[in-house]
Amino acid sequence: MGIVIKQGIKSSIISYIGIAIGTFSLLWLFPKFLDPEKIGLLRILQDIPFLLALLVNLGTHGFIDKFFFHFEDKDKKNNGFFFIVLIYPLVGFLIFTLLFFIFNDLWQSFYATKSKLLLNYFDYIYPLTFIIMYTGIFEIYLRANKMISYSNFLREVVIRFFTLIIVLLFIFHLFNLEHLILAFLISNFIILLLIILYIKQKEIFYIEPNIGFINKKLLSDILYFVSFMIPGTVGAIMVQKIDNLMIGAIAKDGLADVGVYSLAYFIGTVVEVPRKSITQITIPLLSKAAKENDVETISMLYKKNSLNQFVIGTILFICIWMNVDNLLSLIPNHEKYLAGKYVILFIGLSKLTDMATSINSEIIQLTKLYKFNLIAMVFLGVVTVLLNLLLIPVYNIVGAAIAFGISILLFNILKTYYIWLKMKIQPFSYHFIHLTLVFIFLLLISFTQPNVEYGIFITLIIIAVKSCGILILYYILIRYLKISDDLNSLIDRILKRISDKTGIIWLKKYL
Questions:
Q1: DSSP string for 73-90
Q2: pTM
Q3: I need a surface site. Which of 51, 219, 433, 457 has the fewest CB within 10 A?
Q4: Please, which pLDDT band fits residue 378 given cuts at 50, 70 and 90?
């Protein structure tokens, strides 16, 4: 498990570099120079293609995760696996293309009242869906080959840097809005090309088919698995981005509310960055254990992932919520974005719930339990849509965040119970009791912080001081209670290295 944390930290560093760029863009540059409607337009032109890409790939992501080890043999060019990954999703995309043009007027009617600006750029959704679909598929393929750093760098850093440059060109009137959207499309296409070139460089771009390798049993297993993955994906789509789409369609100010919500959502999701990185590293290990029916290893990965992710997520959430008023005050024209404060709270808590139950979705997907995905995802999709329809008209964007939080909580309870019922494993240990008490204690402290506005410089100092203070307190509590052996060992190694290089002996002796 130590290697998982080590690689997860490296991947997280890349993610946080991307977050630094995103923070500058979303929390300062965009609010200062773009109105909320244009921010919402950029957000929704990412979200709609992202959701459609998940749907039209026909379960390719799950297929790669589950069956790569069945095909893996580099001497035989992985028995034509990459050829299937290239060709199979085209079926779904061609179906989507047909439906997109047949029902184009219907799709546009959803946004005709609240988000009219989107209609001017609706045709960009089609090529963006194709590009994002294959970019996502190639990322999963690299992950199956235990290569995640480069694709993470492209997704977290490069695309955000491109977006920053594009918006700056718009701000300085070198681009109009049409040019901005076109450049956004081109930048995504460049990312796709870069990831293809990387796959070729790593010599895993095997396009030769090997139909003879797929016997009747393997074909039957694949088709059976995918038949459950496709409808199950609909539920995943509903919860991942449906809030933005429904806000754009039914919220009071349409795209402007999407802009405010997306900014707050971005802050709230900072909590889960380590989860994504650690899970990406864990999936190949989990897939191998699932193939060998090694329940003991699955249980170990489940428990350690949950504990370590919750340890990291807890302190990130506390730091964000303790400084939330100060963070919002730093945003230019921040009075337009104050409505997002409690969006941050509910999104952050929902992501913390995800981290506490860690890889339950991956366990279900990669083991014989995958048929449950259909029931769970449909349940999730229905609950999410109904809650959004009920809460957005009443509480606007905060209603969308509450709906998201409730959906994620119920979904994780359902998955965790089902895994325990079928495999008699669960993610929690007695350390969770200590950690939960620490979380509640620090959360209560965070609610006592006064809401006073200062200048930018003073505000940054206050954020730094409060964050350092809470980090030190958290470290002492976690260390004293011995909650995570993996994290304690990692910290010991870091402190020893610092001590050896600096000569500060007391670091390794007392900390």
A1: -GGGGGGGHHHHHHHHHH
A2: 0.76
A3: 457
A4: confident
